Structure formats: C-alpha cells, structure tokens
Fold these 3 entries.
Entry 1:
Amino acid sequence: MTAKQEEQQRVDKVEKIIEQQLTDTSDKMTQAKQRTKEIETSYGANTRVNTLEVDDQMETNASVQQQKTLVSMAIENETILNTKNKQLQNLKGSPYFGRIDVTDATQTSYYIGTSTLQDDHNNFLVHDWRAPISSLYYNGTLGQVTYELPDETSKTVDLKLKRQFNIADGKIKNMFDTNETVGDEILQNALGNKSSDYMRNIVATIQQEQNTIIRDTSSDILMVQGAAGSGKTSAILQRVAYLLYHSRSKLNSDNMILFSPNKLFSNYISQVLPSLGEQNMRQVTLDDFLSRRLYGIKVESLFERFERDLHNLPTATKLIRQYKESGKFFDKVIEYFSHNDLALSFEDVYFEGEIFFSSQHIKEVFNTSNSRLPLSYRFLKTKNYLIKELKQRIKTDANEEWVQDELDNLDDLTFQQLLKDNNIEDFEKQREFLSQKFLKERYRSIYNGLFNDFFWDPYKAYHDFLNSNSTEHIDNNSWSEMVASIQDSIEYHKIRLSDSVLVLLIRDLVTGTGKNYSIQHLFVDEMQDYPLTVFKYLNFSFPSAKFTLLGDFAQDIFSTTYTNDDRLMNLQELFSDKKCQLITLNQSYRSSAPITNFAKAVLPHGDLIKTFSRDGNIPHIINYDSNDNYLTDIPRLFVELTKHNDTVAILTKTAEQAQTIFDNLKLKIEINLISNQNRSLKPGLLVLPIYLAKGLEFDAVIADNISQENYPDSHEEDIVYTIFTRAMHDLVVTSVGDVSPIIQKIDSTLYKKD
C-alpha cells in the first residue's frame, strides 16, 4: 500500500467520525432547544412572587435565582453545541491540511487543521492550527526544532516529517513531503483560484513570516509593512483567531476592535473568523468612529478629503495640515489643556427659551474649586454641583402654583403614568411626590444637557486654542483664514477630519471622559491612510490596548497630495516608548507574475517586491483617441474578460469618474456602481473609485484612463500601483490620449500595447 493510500484510509476514517459527530451534535442541539423551551415555558409558573411573609420572600428569591441559572445553563449549552457544529461543518470534506512527525521520547504524528477534533476516547485526530505544536508546521525545518508551550516555556524535539495535503470532498487531491513552510504547489493551487465575494480562509498557506505576525503575544505595537497581495490582512485575521485561542479565559471578541478602510472591506473579510469557529470582532471605519463620538456633527471622511484635495489644495493648506496632523501639535494640545488653572468658557443652559443656568453662574461655580486640582476633576465637580442645584430646584418648584395647575390639567393617561409605582397613602405627600416626578420629566432636557456636558463647548475651546497657538512657519493670514473656516463649517454642523480628532482630544481632556479600558487589542488596516494624530488619539483613547497596525506605504493614496514624509519612521517614533516590532512582507501572492512585475515597475523601489511564480496573461495597454471610443469599447472588454474571469472591475481615480462611466453604460450593459455606502459587491461589471477597492481583489481589472491628463506626474504613483495590484489574473490599462509618464517609464517587455 502506498503512502497516499494509507493517508486516504485515515481521511476516510476521520470523515466517518465527523459525520457521526455531526449527527450526534444535531440530535443534542434539538434536545437542547427543546429543553430551553421547556424551562422558559415553566419560568413564570416556577417564579410566582409571594411576599406576604419573610420566609416566602426568601423562598421566592431562591426560586427566581434557580430558574435564572437553569435558563443561563440551557442557553450556554446551546451555544457550545452550535460552536461545535460549525467546527465540524468546517472540517467536513477537508479535515486537515498538514502532518508533522515529531520524535521526543517516542515518535508521534500530528495532523493540523482549522480546529481540534477528538474521537470518543479523547484521542486527538486533528490539532488546531493555533496549538503550540502546530507552529512547527509553519516554522520548523526537519531536524532539531524548538517550540513554545502554553506556560511560555520551550521544548526541543526532532521534526522527522512535514507533509502537506490538498483534500477536497474527502479525497486527497494532492500530497507531498517538504522541508519548506508551504510548498509552491499548494500555494499555486490555493491562490490561483478565482476571486469571491469574501476573503478566503487559507490557514494551510500561512508562510513563516505571517506565522510570526500571527503568534506574536509580547509586542505592544506590532507594525506590518507589506507589499500589495502579501497576505497582510489574512495574517491579521488569523492573528485575531490565534489571540482568542491563546487567551480564551481572559479575552473575547468584545475586547477587540478593527478599524477597516470602508464598509465594503468589512463585509469582504466578514466570513474569515466564523470559518475558524470564532465570533467576529467589532469593526468600524475611521469616520464612523469619529462621528459617533462627535454626535450631531458630520465628520469629513478620508474619501471626501481625497476628492476635495484633487480639486484644490493650496500650498498654505498643505503646510497647515502637515502641522496640525503632527505628533508635535497633538502634544501642544495636551500641554495647553493640562493646565489646572485654565480659564474655561461656559455656555448658558436654556429651558423653554429662557436661561436656566447662566454661563456666568457656571463659571463662578467652576472657579470655587481648587485650581491646584486637575482640570477634569474641577469640571466634574462643577457638573455634579449643577446637577445638585437642579435637584434642589425640583424640590423648590414642586410647591409652585403653576406646577399644581399643570398637574390638575393633565389627561388621565399621563396622570396614571405619574401614579405608577406610587404606594403613598398620605394625600399631601402623594401630591409632593407627583409634583417632583412631574418636574423631573419636565426638566429632563436640562439634566441630559448637564450630564452630556452641553454647558461647555469643545469647539469654542478648540477655536480659542488655535487663536492662542503660535503658527511657527505658517503666515498669520493663512492661519487666521483656517480658523475662520473651521468656525464656518461648525455653524453648518460639519468638521474636517484633522480638526475632529483634536476636538475629541480637547473634550476628553477637559471632561475626563472618552477612555475605553475594555479593549485589549486594536487593529488598523491600511495604516498608511491615517494621520499621525489619529494614532496618538487612539493610543490616548484605548490605554489598555495592544496595537496591530498593517499597511503598505506604497499604497499611500490619501496623503500623497500633501506630504512626502517617511510616515513609517514617524509612526515608529510616535510609539518609541512602547515595545514595538516591525515586520516587512515583500513577497506578493495575489497577482500573477506578469501583473506583479508590471505593477512594481511603477514604484521607485519596486525591485524590493518579490514576485510569486504564478503564470498569467501579460498586462494589456489600450490607447484610445477619444473618450467616446473608450466608453464604446468597454462592453467588448467586459465580454472578453468574463470568458475566463468571474469578477471584473473598472477602477477609477475618483467617484465622479466612476459615476460618469456608470451613467454612460447602464443602459448598454449590466454594470454596478459601488459607493461608500455599499456593504457588498454585486454581480456583473463593477465600477468604483480605487479608494473603495483597497484591500479587495478581482479576477480582472480595467484600469480607467491612466493617461497623461488624468495622472500627470509621479505624485500619483501610489494610486496607479494600487489600481494595478487589485488584479489577480488579467489587467487591462486604458488611456484616452497619451499614457501617463508613470506608465511611460515601464519596460515595454512587461506589457503588450494596442
């Protein structure tokens, strides 16, 4: 019997066990649901409240607690069974992808899969890819190897065999022994497939560098600089799954948050963690995060700023933005608002058009607190004092004649609502109770205003700070115009991105709020898109979190218009007080070799990117003499590309360009315009601006109008490179008129041209 036949016999055996466990689990789930239903049905009958006697009260309380425990246990049992069922479903058909033979005292074979599988005698049939022993599959080479145990000690063993499998529908399609991390044959098969609506979970193809990212538990700040298609996002999602596995007793998905580039990307990666048996963590875009914290004001998104910059970005605006988004300016804000004796400007608190608490009164209350106390503590004392004054006012006003008149004129329904939970028999006390309850509801808006700190305006505080700040190398007129424009925008309930972060910081410093200590791990995808002040604020706002930051500074499309700084170095300096690790991934896997070689030729240092040896079609440049001819030819291109590809996208520079293409073609061909509000991709030809395609991949890409007019200089290399690297199998580059200088410098042997 050959080795493959022996391995197939084992696969057959494991598949039968999975099928049996699926049947058993399904039966148990049915029973568990029935049990939960029975407990919930009997809950009311078993918890009738009897409060006549003390003993009865104690018995009732015990009964209630007992029923709560039963319900909780039943729900937990259902959750465990559901999780097991999902894991078994994921294992079915492809139970594992690797095998390692290790010699310690004896020789043992370990099979590696997406989750653990044991038989009825608790023998391990499959080991979870996150288990310590499984690291040898990714990191180990044959011979003496060392791996870390759960208690953080290490163990040295002799790795005798590393075998890789490609199993589908319970049949071994391919297997071979190797000394590499993951052999090219496995990678070719896994990565050469067509794109889909969701990112695939390919734990079988994790490379050694990715495994280092996944299993790092010691770094405070883990930065991953990776070429397009190098597996950054995949590694980071596997890292989330690994951390949840590694620290399950003290960490869950609620303790993690991921900052995604857009809603489309969030949906794209949404299936990876569930396929590994883990719950999705919270995901948020930067503008959503900022908007939620600055309720009632529209925060400019990165996309909106990018579009605006392309139309008009004066030199003075560039200088001001660089200054305001620097770590130095962020620290100036902290220093300014850390002075305990800072004079705050307060707002009048109105009720029904009249002043209830005057700004002068609030200022006097604030000034009575000890100026040596922290500013946030003085602010809190002021707030608490005003709330106490409000409560006293309620007691005082309860005896006012107008309150009694209001009570007498209430309709029956409202009056009955006030009487609810009122067991007072004495008429005068009941009247007093009703008056105060009525006023609490009447004055609720005042209480809410005090509770939410609306008696102080952080926007005005920011305005005052900007007016008092020295502008260094920026002329005073430009600075004053900037301050005035912020004031105008706020009048219309809008705020620029760089300003929103600083306003939030000021609000948090003064009020002592805004810090979330429950988040233990924070992930940022496309880190190159974020201003330094955002990272400073996230570090301030999530003080207990370890950061995992990943991106590609060759895809820095959002800041290319206003800065040429070494952003990666600036980021490392920003976190210099923490334990940082930088990992660089230069191997690109997404695109075929011809596309990768063509795309990296756009970059000044593109030779640092390593091409994965997967064959494909050479990129095709088509030059059109008019825009009409270009638009007329797109349906033909689409038909041609769909002969061998499932997903085809036209990637434009701006949303306006995408809209123009859509408007011209929507009556001629099935085409879908993707905007920032889309959460999923649609079938047919897609058209979208490149900033919405970040992190995504398509079988074929039509690069829209990479012409001299549309991309006139090297400042836009990052945009062009990002467009090209979205393509997996086919890339068509179009140009109306002469091609961009960015393309002209590429070796002509790397493409064909019409």
Entry 2:
Amino acid sequence: MYTIEWKKRGLPHVHLLVWLNDKLRPNYIDLVLSAELPNQQEDPSLFNVVSRNMIHGPCGTFNMNSPCMQNGKCSKGFPKLFTIATQSGQDGYPKYRRRSPDDGGQTFQLRKSGNRMITIDNRWIVPYSPLLLRVFDCHINIELCHSVKAIQYICSYINKGSDQAAFSVESRDEIKEFQNGRYISSSEAAWRIFGFTIHERSPAIFQLSVHLENGQRVYFTDQNARERLENVRNTTLMAFFELCHHDEFAKTLLYIEVPSYYTFTNNRFNRRKQGESIVQYPGVKKSNVLGRVYTVHPSNVECYYLRMLLHHVRGPTSFLDLKTVDDVIHPTFQRACQALGLLQDESHWNSTLEEAALFQSVSNLRELFVIMIAFCHITNLTELWENHKNNMSLDILQQERHRSGNHDLAVTPYILNKTLILIENDLLKISGKKLSDFNMESPLRTDDNDNNFLRDRAYIAETSYDYDILSKYIQENEPKLTNDQQVIYNTILQSVLQDTGELFFLDAPGGTGKTFMLNLLLPKLRVERIISLAVASSGIAATLLQNGKTAHSAFKLPLDLQTNERPVCSVKKQSSLGKLLRETRFIAWDESTMANKGGPEALDRTLRDFKNNDRPMGGVVILFAGDFRQILPVVPKGTKSDEINACLKSSYLWSYITSLRLTTNMRVHLGGDNNAELFSQHLLKIGDGTFQNDKDSIIQINSTFAISVLDRNNLINKVYPEISHLSNKSNEMKKTDITSTDITLINVNKSKTI
C-alpha cells in the first residue's frame, strides 16, 4: 500500500508499506537492512550513495538551527547510540546495529558550509536497504515494522492526507471567515493532469458475503418488488455452492480461496483468463486477489458458526452439506463445528469462576458471569452455567432455607430460575439483551414486575412521575418567570400541544435562567402525560435537569461522530428505548452548542425511521439550548474551521430551526446591582467579539469594578485563605474600598488573576 505526497520543494515522495509473506526473523535483519556506513574500499559505489543520501543532519551541536531540532533536541532521535548487534526490542522499531569505530565501524569526513569538516560515524546513518540504494541511487529510508505500534503509525501516516492550512479572511465590519486550503505545486498539478495514481494497494481484496439459508439481503422498490422476489439474485455464497456442483477444481477450495481463481460476474463465479497457470488443472489460472469473508458477531450464533465452517470445509454444495460431518446431518452449524473439533477449549472460563467462588460474594460471582456473557463471546454458556449454578444460587438458597425453616433444603428449579432472573436483569442493564440472545434458556417470569422490567424499563422510568409533586412545583415557580422567559415558555408549550413538530434553538447566555425555565417546562408537559426527555451534552449539565441524562447515554449515540458520515443511534426499534422514542413528543437538549452536529443528525435519522415520519426529527419538538459564545465541539487535532464545521449551525438541521433568545440576566434582575449588569454586558461583548481591547488582544478590566461584583469577604476568606489578614485591616471596609495594591498582593501570593 502506498501514497504519493509532495514535499516542500514540489518533488514527489512515496510512503510505501509492504507485508512480507514470510516473517523476517531477527537474525536476518542485518542481511536486508543496514544503518551503517559501508566499507569504502570494498564497496565504493554503495558508499557514495549512502554518504550523499542517507546522512541525517548532522544536527544538535553541529547545527542548532536544523529543522529537526525541537526544544534543543533532535525530534528524530539522532545521534543514535552505538549498538554492537541488532536488537528487535519490545515496541516500535528495532535498534539496528551501529558499530563504533573501536568495534569496526566506518567513518568519513563530511564537508559542511564554511569548509568545516565533521566526522560522520554510524550514529548518523538513516536505515536503508543496500539493494534498493544500488538500484535507485537516491534517498530511501527503510524501517522494519515488527510491532503493532509501528504498523499503526505507518498506516496512519499513509492515510493522513496532504498537509493543509487554515487561514482567515477579514473584512471591515464583517466577522472573520475561516477557510481550509492547501497549496498544490506545479509537479503535483502535472501528476494529477496525467492521471498518475496517488494512492494504491495491492493485492486486491474481494469481500465475500455470509448469511443463513434464505437470509440474504434483497433490495427492492415498490415497482420491482415482485420481480425481485421471484428472481432473487445470487450472493457470492450461493454462487460458491453452485460452482462446487459442477466444477471439480472448486471442490478443492475453501470459500476464501475462490477469488484467487475465479471472477464474480453476472452473479456467478467464472474462471480467470489471466494469471499463473495451474499444472494439475488445465484452464485454471491464479491471481493474487485475496478473499475476505465479512465478520459476524458471536451473538448471531448460527451465522457465526456458519462462517467458521466456511473457513474449514472445502467444496460444500449447500447449507445442508456444511451441516453434514461423517455422513451425519447435524441440526445446527454449531453442532457441526463441535463434530469437526473446531470449537476452542474454554476451560479457562471454568477456572475463572472456580477461583472467584473461593473468595467473592455470590452477588459478585453473578456479576462476573454477566460480564462474561455480555463481552467475552463464550460459545458454550449453557455448560458454564450448569457447572457453576449452585455457587451462584447460594444466597437465594439460604433465604429459602430461612423462610421455610428447612435447613436441609437443596437447590430447586425455583431457586435456579430466580437466580437466572437476577442474572438476566443485570444483563439487561449493561447490554440491553436477554439470555436467549446468547443462546441460553431465558428464566420463567410469572411476576408482572419482572415482565415490566424485561420489556419496558426505560419506558416506565419516563411515565412513573409523582404528578402531585410536579403540579405543586409548577404552581410555585410559574409566577417567577420573567417576561422573555414567559414568551418562550408559552411558545414551546403551544408547539408541543399542537404537535407542530418545530425545532427551536434557545440562545441563553450565562445567568439568564435557562436551566430554571427548562426545569419548569419539563414538569408542565409531563403532568399533561406527554413524554418529555431531558438530555445534555455534558454530564454536569445533565445533573441540573430533572431526570436528565447525557445525550450519548439517552440516545445511544455512536462515538465516531467526527468520522461517520451518516451516523444513527444504536437503538433497536422494538426495544424499550425504541418504544420510548416512538412515543416521545418533546426533547430538551441542553449545551447543544458543544455537541458535534453528528449527534443531532443521528437522532434525526433514528426518529424519522421509528416514527415513520419524514419531518425533521420525526415530528418531535426539539429545544436545543446553549450559548455559541462558549465551548464549541472538540475536534481532536482539528483547526478552528473544523470546530465550526462540527457545530450545530453547520448541520443541515439548522435551516429548520427557529432561534429564540433569553436576554434578562437573572442575577441582575433579582439583585438589582448595577455593577453586576455592567459586568454581564462586558461578558456578552467579549463573547460577541465586540469588546474594545488593546493591540496585544489583552482585555483590561478595572480592578475596583471586578472586586465590586464579587463578595469581598468570600473572595478573601474562602478563595484566598492564606492572606485572610487583609480582611483584618478594616472589617468595616466597603467593597469599593479595596485598592489596586490589595489586588496586586492577592495576585502575587496566589499567582492568579481576578
């Protein structure tokens, strides 16, 4: 796999990654790679190439202005240490052999600018391949990637893309506009005009489908549904079965080997016409194409074992053929794998539970078993349960003995069923799945509460409020709304009650009562039996909302929002959370300004699907709240323009959003402090970018004004206790009497600014 890029002078540069068929053993590294000067008398041509092209720097004390120097050190780690023999190491790249002059290493004199002569030894040699240097006579750095860390770095470097720069375009009386761009040299322009490849990998990878019988995907529209049903197209798996019926050579192949000898055209496999001929089979040619079967999660049990069989059985002609082992037809693919001895030994799981039973409580033992079920992909959970069910039921057994008065009571099916109910409840909490989803028998649930927990635990949590308490809270706090809060409050209520499906954004600078209004709006709708969800982009903001959750937790948002082009919520349509989303009519999303736009877009796609409604958000009224003057979405290693592109305003949803705004600062409104009002205005100007600052972009705030906004006693006695003696100078001192000298003293002692 390789990628072409252009260096600063415009010349093409290739990064190439090669996987070797046979692993390069440590004792062979020196035969392929070298980090030493060759002997000038024995190999003068190679010496000339290395001395011209493979010398790093020299940097450091020889040249402190070298581009590789960072914080007084070489960022590439030169000069390297002398090493008598190559060491493969545990991580990163090998430590190549670099012999010192005393151990037989070569040296030569390099002339630098100013006619300075520098002695170069093996510490300054960039690793190279003698063969490639002889052929190409240029700089070719070769490294051995013998660890995961090195391979990850190389793959990342090959796929990183071209260098880019972010720049701003400024115009008077207009906001700054950030743009992304990169420079294209004349060499790169010519390369692209001639159509030369920029990125390529070899050999080709051909993906092979895997599915159960009659489980292949069929794509259709209203117009061609009947035709597609009557003439189902072959998948690569079905075509493989057909091929093995009539082709003797195909019967010798595994499923993954077929793409090397056959092409898939017109929904069938045909022999390749080009490639290396196979002597034993005339007319068969082999290419270097690799076959890869799509991965299957172990929770999809039968398909998982079908994939395993396809990797071990040659020339099957049907699904039934795969289930047949030694003329015995097994009922499942799992049984067929067991008959072939393909299932791995899982005795270590038994040992784990046996050891845990010695010193862990019974509840902890059950928790460990639940974690194994959910995350460890164990193939035979039923056997594991049978081996340890008595240990996991001991506490329930003791309870039944105490209740019945029979101290000789043994474990009964009732006790085991109750144990399985507890295990399944914990499993539902951490994975949302039942035991039957992992090929285990589900417990018998006769209690209505157990059934409700199983089916609708998320739904019940949002429909089980104490409506008397909510009504009392509304009566006490509705009169406290300011005029602008009341207008927005009524607007949202009217939209939800009339089911208009509008989207709103509440622009609420700090101190304007946004959280207060949201915590009043949610109970108002809930007492009307309207399901209303409260989410926030951060955990701290979520705790301030009534029954608030983080958006990722509430909607199961994917974690790769920055790289996923069309994200959707990881929620099953028939799950309890899916049922809750289908009946939801209002969602309040606080701190939405710091959420990646992919989150709301994922929720939009999910709600449209769940509600079968093509309106934005499936017709659910959404109130996004926040302040764009504060933190925007965090884009790892991103530029300012990347952050702007990731925010809600850059989403396609923004065109459907109606903006509302809170303007009354509640701290000013309730306190009546003119200085606090002035301070809030200054903060808004800073956030809007309209505050007048000096040429160094430093904002100056008057010291007396800053202190007068704060409580002087709290400032000195709580924030700066080590200089509380200031308050003893004059306990009668007014707020505005603190001088700039006192401010300086506070700053010096605490190394902070007010």
Entry 3:
Amino acid sequence: MTFNGTWLLPVSLLRILLLVVIRETGNHNYDSSERLGSYYDFIVIGAGSAGATVAARLAEVSGWRVLLLESGGQPPPESHVPALFSLLLQGDADWKFKSVQQKYSLGGFKDQAITINRGRVVGGTSTLNFMMYVRGHRKDFDNWAEMGNPGWDYASVLHYFKKSEDYRGTRHGATAEYHGFGGPLSVEDKGWYSPILTGFLDAAQQLGYHIIDPNGPHMIGFSVPDMTIKDGWRWTSAEAYLKPAAERQNLHVVTNAHVTQIIFDEKKRAVGVRFVHKGEMKMALVKREVIVSGGAISSPHILMLSGVGPASHLQQHGVPVVADVPGVGLNLQDHASIFGLSWTTSPGSTISFLTLARPSSLADYIFRRKGPFATPIGIEAHAWIESDEGDPYWPELQFLFISGTAMFDNGISIPDLIGYDRQFFYDYFLPIRGQDGFSIAPMLTRARSRGSITLQSSDPMVHPVIDPNYLSHPTDVRNLIKGVKFALAVGNTPAMADGFGARFHDKVVPGCEHLVPESDPYWECLVRHLTSTTYHFAGSCKMAPGSDPYGVVDHALKVRGVSGLRVVDASIMPIVVSANPNAAIIMIGEKAADLIKAEWGAISPYPPTVPYI
C-alpha cells in the first residue's frame, strides 16, 4: 500500500490547512532562472542546509555574483507545517535513494534494504527532517581538530553555532551564554506534548539523570528537544537564509537544475558546471570557486562523475580521471537506530492519529499556530548516557522517546514509510494494534561501521550505489544491546510502569525464536532485525590532513588534486557528530563562508580561536 498521508485528516480539512499555509507563507518563489548569466564569482551546487547558508553569506559581498543550483523545486505547502513532514516523503521533494541489501542488519525490512530520504528541494533535507536542533558534543569537534583539522575545535566552531542561531526558547536561561540570539535560524521550544512526556522526564530523575540543555556545557542527561521552528512554522535553511537574501540582485537561485559535471581546465582548476535545466543541457562558468553542497550522498557522486575520485573505479565506468582521490565516497557514516522497541500504556497517555483528526486540533493550528500540528509528530524527548569506553561523558548512544508505537496508524502506512517487510511487521506488531503506547529508539552516535558511495553508472541521472554497511563492526552491536537494556530500564521505572501502565511488548522477534528471550544473543538478533537508518549520513568526503590517504578535503574544505573546488556539507565530517546533524551542517556552511571570504580578501582572516566558555 502506498502512503499518501490523507489518513491523517479528512481530505477537505487538509486542503483547508494547506490553503491557509499558502496564504500566510506567500508560497515564496526562490527561482530566478530568468536572470541566469554565463559567468559568476561562485557557483554553489545544492540549496540544502549548508548550500543555502554558504550561498547567502557569500552574496553579502555586493561585488560578488553567486549562482545557487538546486536539483529540486520549490518547498511544497505542506513542508511549512511541522506535523506534515511525512507527506513530503512521497512527493517530488525527496530523492528516494535506495540502499543496497545489507548483510548484517535490516533483517525485518523489505529486501534487507531501505529507502534513504534526502531533500531534493530548496532547503534540502531541512525541509523534511524532524527539526531537532542539537549541535553535538564538544569533543566531536575537538576530535576533528586533533585528527589534523585546525580551526574545527569546539572553541572555534561555537562562534558559528551562535552566529547562526536565534534562540527563542524558554527552558535554557541558565545556559544562555551558549546560545545565539538574532541569527537567521529560529530555535524554539517543542510546542506540544502528549501526557507521556512527564513520564519520560520523571523516569530520568528516577534513574539518576538530570534534565539538561544538550547544547550547553554537558550532554549526559535527558532533554525536551529544541526545534528549528518559528511561530508554528518549520524554519528551514531556505526560510532562514535564502528568503532574506532574495532581495540581493547578486544571488541567482535556479531550481530544477540537475548538475551533471564540474568542468576543469588543463590545470585542473574548476572553471564551471554543466547542468540540465528545463530539458536542456546548460553551462555556467566561474571566476573564483565551485562549491559542492549536495550532501553525503550527492557530493561524492558529483565529484566522481566529474573525474575526481578513485581512479580505478572511475576508469571502470569510463569516466576520464581528473584527479585520483581514493577517499571520495568512502567513510560513509550514519546514526543507526533501533525502531520497534514498544510499550503499551493506559489509554489517553500518548498521541494517536485521531488527535490530529479532531477539528479542534486543526482550528488550534489555523488560528493560533499551536497544538499537535505545530510540532513534528512522535518525538517527545531524547537523552544521552555515559559511554563504557574512553571518556564516559562523550556519549556513544542517544535515545529518542517517541509517543506512539509502530502500530500508530494500525499498520496502514508505517510499514511502507519505515520500510518493514510487511509479513515481519504484522507477525511482530499485530498484538499491540489499537493500543496506546510509546517507543524508545536507541541510536548509535559514534558508530564504528563504515559504508560507501560508488558509481552505478557514468549516467548522471542514475543514482549511485549506497552501502551503509550497518552493524559490520561488532562494537556497534554491543552498544545497541546496551541501548536496549537502558530502554528497558526506562520503561520499568515507577514513573512509566506505575504512572502510565507501561508494559514492554515482549513478543519474540520473528527470526529469533531459536534464542533464549532477553539473553544477549537474543538481543543481538533483535538488533540485527530492527536496526535501520536515522537519515544522518555524513563523512563521504572526509576532511583530513595530507597524511591521511583517504582524505578528500583539507581543513579549508578544498578538494585534493584540483583547485577552485570545495565541498561544504555533512560529507566533510571526519566522524559524524554525536547528535542530529542539521545544526552542525549549518555551522559548516557558516564557517566555510568566512573561510572563503577571508581567502578572497572580503574579510580579515577569521576567526581567531576563542576561549572556552
């Protein structure tokens, strides 16, 4: 069955809501292709979280002409409503990438593969993500610097987090010095909760954890998420950066422009790009730099199509080699998560789709921008716990506390949306159909497993081969088993068991019947069947010093073996941050813009290292 989202509401009510959205947001048209020129100072490929940021910041220099090319189109009306994010996964705003079959994971998923949702739209994946604003642990960034990337330590990047942020929340007065105020990116409190949230927060205290600001000085503890939302609207990189920049005549955004190749001259300098627009192959030339911001899947794909990558692999596909850079497409990382650990609860304690179907919920959003439509459905809280190895305060696990189970919609759409094998789904989850409940999803923040992006074809319209290689490293399995046990401890607290009647759904996972329930071998089997993506791909164009043979860009984000070319997005992360990565991706865009401005004399070299708070 194909999910079309209309089960959430009667179709007529949904149309009313979208009409209101169109009227109030103005349905902004970002496209300026009628002004497309032949020469630009900078060409940015991809209008996602990093690309929109760096393009808008470069256009602040009035003498520079900036071209931003986006393969997708305008943000659809439903993208503005936080609760309707799932509708976007079925439309043209999503790339709908597919992974290859996984060897060590996805046992309960169709063909042991997944659909990888990535934004193909102005605003990129910030247009269809969960909107959670978390930066990562300070040691993530200090570690980047220790790996040979000066200027990426926490003390240096904190400036750019604060520069981008407009904190409008109410919960973090004690940590206000860690937040930015007045930046482009609106960050607010999560605006609506189901009753089960109080149980999660009480359980935290019963287990000895504090309620924290994960963007403050400490990350171990429980937290209610901050969201990239403004007055009830999703606040994407397009809203934050491109819409204000649209008044500048020196920034040209061209939508539905699919880049097929970066053009190099005989000195291996990037001098332009080719792209398909309105059915025609077009070309734009560049005076200063090309900046690739396609994300962890598309950026290495574009580089390889352009002749920058592992020489032997490019030759196999008939791509002329410009620069032999073996690391392109390697080091792919994701935050693998277990989806399916479920508890039933007393009626009325969690959200159901009927909550959204109530006319009062719709009216609350239309007239007040409040209620369940004003927040992404499901996520109530999250937490980080101590690590067993190394620094105990640098977490290897994050937990997502979700109001609702996989039977949230009685099995109508969730199997296809998540990617479960339908027979597996019904065999395992049918007993909790129609019951209130919640889920806890343990997530690996620092997975050891590494995957790859490779060419399937030299045809730029053919998607690359994506192999996340989940759970190929045994430490990942051990950490997720630890995560299962912690999730059970949360569900067993008096706050949950007594306060909300929480009962773990302990049906034996299909395929694990031969193992002793609740033994470590059984939990490993569960992990290998239920672990999937959290859509946090990074690392495939690794930032590293010249001594690392698999580095792709240096600490200034310049691509090896060529000139006039940088990569600016999540793909440059040597190791993905220990949290939802969107805030860090925007930070990368902010820092990259200053690096570029300084190199071309638009600002003084910046920033000097600032002290820790």
